[in-house]
Fold:
Amino acid sequence: MSIAGLVQGVSIGFSQLTLPGMVIAFLLGAGITFFVSRLLQQRVDSLRKELQKEFNRHTAELRETEDRFKEYAESSTEWFWETDAENRFVFFSSHLYESMGISSEDVLGKRREDLRIAPVNPEVDVQWENYLRCIEQRLPFKDFEYRARLPDGREVLVHSTGKPFFDDDGNFLGYRGT
Structure:
């Protein structure tokens, strides 16, 4: 088939169209388009409402979990702490400050090594070395005891347990513990 024959066949189809036929085809197409767009908009609105309900539900659950954790932490005689990847303290539960009479500036950003009092007992050195090995290998540690000096000069015995935590890609972020 030649290009001229193809163009002639197409022009035959167009030559039979009339203005009223084109208006009817346009209105029919516009009506179908409007109807489909309304259906799609209703579905989008329905999905948006479902997502909002789900988001609200999860937000309420998160608030409840946060409140629960806060109440546990406040009623505990223990205090909670967190370190960064360089083993510097970045968080302590607020009742540490109240019970010890110190401020966050006294301990945040410091490592245990900065607060530690050098031991006089070789057995304590072994315990400290075990702790450092756990930190180096990103392992949990339990019942670690050391003496620390508070900024006002007081000495305290610290009994600590910690667990490493990681991001979703497995990168080490620090430790959390009591």
About this structure: The longest helix spans residues 19-75.
